[in-house]
Amino acid sequence: MFKRLSPPEATNEAVVTFRFDEQTVTARPGDTVAAALLTSGISICRSTPVSNAPRAPYCMMGVCFECLVEVDGNPNVQACQAEVRDGMHVHTQQGARRLTS
């Protein structure tokens, strides 16, 4: 559904590589995690605590909270607000997570 006009590997621009669950994902510096996942064909980033229904990024501006993921061990990170970093580990968030202080 989402597609870059030119993939990061096809240009001379720098590439950021990170892990999403068991996959390696490439992105451009400055991309959000949600944008990088969607352009890589990954749409499911969490499941709901009640019905375990899959959820995906929706508003892409930090309002809907549908894109919550776990980043480097920190749960409840909005993927649409988090910028990709080389070597980061992002995981699908399953159900409810505890609040962190």
What does this structure look like?
The protein is globular. The longest helix is centred in the middle third of the chain and has 7 residues, at 33-39. With 101 residues, it is mainly beta. Strands 1, 2, 3, 4, 5, 6 and 7 form a seven-stranded mixed β-sheet that branches. The model has no long low-confidence stretch (mean pLDDT 90). The protein contains one helix and seven strands; from the N terminus they run E-E-H-E-E-E-E-E. It has one helix spanning 33-39, and strands spanning 16-20, 23-27, 46-47, 54-55, 68-71, 74-78, 89-94.
Strand content: 25-35%
The total of beta strands comes to 7
Radius of gyration: 13 Å
Count of helix runs: 1
**Global geometry:** globular
The helix content is: under 10%
* Strand and helix order: EEHEEEEE
Query: Which structural class do you get from the secondary structure elements?
Result: mainly beta
Distance between the ends: 37 Å
**Low-pLDDT runs:** none
Oligomeric state of this protein: single chain
Would you tell me the overall average pLDDT? 90
What's the story with the biggest beta sheet?
7 strands, mixed
In a nutshell, what does this entry contain?
By secondary structure, this protein is mainly beta. It contains 1 helix and 7 strands. Strand 5 and strand 6 form a beta hairpin.
Descriptive keywords:
single chain; seven-stranded mixed sheet; 7% helix; globular
Write the layout of secondary structure elements.
Elements: E1 16-20, E2 23-27, H1 33-39, E3 46-47, E4 54-55, E5 68-71, E6 74-78, E7 89-94
